[in-house]
Amino acid sequence: MSKFPKGFLKGAATAAHQVEGNNINSDYWAMEHMKYSSFTEPSLDAVDHYHRYEEDIKMMAEAGLNAYRFSVEWARIEPEQGKFDDREIEHYRKVLECCQKYGIEPVVTLHHFTSPKWLIEKGGWEQEETVELFARYCRYVVEQLGSFMHYVCTINEANMGLQIAAISARYQAQMMAKMKNTGAGKAVEATAKETAKDAEGAVQVGLNMQKMMENMNKQREENIEVFKTPEPQVFVSARTQKGDMLIMKAHQAAKKAIKEVNPQLQVGITLSLHDIQAKKGGEEKAALEWEEEFLHYTPFIRDDDFFGLQNYTRSVYDSDGICAAPAEAELTQMDYEIYPQALERCIRRVYEELQIPVIVTENGIAVEDDRKRVDFIASATDGVAQCIADGIPVKGYFYWSLLDNFEWQKGYSMTFGLAAVDRDTQKRNPKPSLAYLGCL
Q1: What domains, with CATH codes, occur in the chain?
Q2: Would the keyword Hydrolase be found if you checked this record's keyword annotation (predicted)?
Q3: Among 33, 94, 335, 424, which residue has the fewest nearby CB atoms (within 10 Å)?
């Protein structure tokens, strides 16, 4: 017997740039190929989902999943400003038709971190014009593809820029403090690596903090060549408060455009949330963190049709700020504490403030041992089921990710997937966790 009610969306998630390959008109493709790149490796063919989408959708359906969250790529659809590519829209139409063929409900994300390179050259995600440009793109996609969809996420992890700004500031402050007590040479290098590792484990995206800081000055010169500005404002740049509000404006403008085309579409946004906990003395700092990570967005999303919740771990605060994971805690490849209980706690806390349906749009674990993935999914989904039993309208759970794929600046080293991929042959190798999730 399923632990979820009839109609519950049980699926896996991907993002276009991380799985499709050869997204050559995007800002990320440009950054990956820079001489002083912060990326450990370029995405290249990724895992060739662009050509193998039917194989992957069929694999999900055969395992027992009934939903698939994926993104359409703005840089493919509008490779030049104002010029929409009919061939690329047709590609995504075929993906949606394939979902229909296999009984898979699509949940489509319109922006998942990557943007057209031309947008960044115009000022990117700190430029007011981006609101109008994003809404126009969303309108076009829905005009072309809206009849194949029921659920649309406008923007993935809209709060990521503020999280990265906070992490960058904390990294630099920690480095300054540690350097006062550290000698030169190898000791300094070891300190930098240790501090970077701590910082990366506190943000839910693949970053190379040390490399970013080391290359900062050299990158400024190269950025002028590539993006016509020393500080390109890509979606995951450290964001200002003005830029943070611009993201909310973009979401609201996109939702308005989508509803004008197809009022029946269910529209929401996703945020990256930690289960924020406080030790004695850390209550005020924890409350401020929850305000920045979630609460200040609620006035802009309260009227959405659903909320996309993305959670991987917890953050604990004491009087000095964020705490390192407990010494006995097991960490993932991303240096997150393995803490599946965080998801239930986040759902409950979100619903206290924002009483609209919740879809868990991402929740997962990067580990080599798939038995740990199965245990993680079991515990996390038990929490989801308990929330539903208590009357919270959780409409779906999407594991991140369907495939081992390109984890941004960390490249292909992080194994989140329900299926492994041999990148020499692109052969998919389903893991036991895929079948386990399908049977829930």
Answers
A1: 9-439 (3.20.20.80)
A2: yes
A3: 424
